[in-house]
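User: If you would, consider this record:
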Amino acid sequence: MTPQEKAESLGITFTRQEPGYLAMVVKTGNLLMTSGHVSDIKGKLGAGVSVDEGKKAARECAVKILNSVWNAHGTLDGLKVLKLLGCVNSSLDFTDQHLVVNGCSDLLHEIFGKPGDGFHARSALGFAQIPTGSAVEVEAIFEIKG
C-alpha cells in the first residue's frame, strides 16, 4: 500500500487550500518544508491537558501537515519524512513533551513506514505559549525522493 493509499485507508481526507498570509509549504530543491501547523485542541500540558490529549493534538498537527504537503506535491507518494519540530504548550514542570509529539511521529510511521521513509529525526520542546492557545504546533521537512 502506498503512503497516499495508507493515509486514505486511515480516514484522512485531503482538501484544497487557498493561499494565505504565509506559505504552508515551501519547496526548495528536493525538500518540502512546512510552516508550523497548530492543533485544534487548546490548553497547556501539565495544567489541564493530559498526555493522551496532547498526543491527539500532535496527531491533528500531522493530519494538517499531510494535507498541506498533499496540496504542494499532489500526493504523499514518493516522499520521505526527514525532520519534525514539535512545540508543546507546557507548564513549567511538564517534562513529557517527547511523549506528546509521539502522536505526530506515530501517524507518520504508520503511513510512511518504520523502518522506512517515515523514520525521522525529531525535536520535542516545551513552550510557555503556542499561537491561538493550541496545545501543540508541529513543523516538518520532507524529501522528494528520486
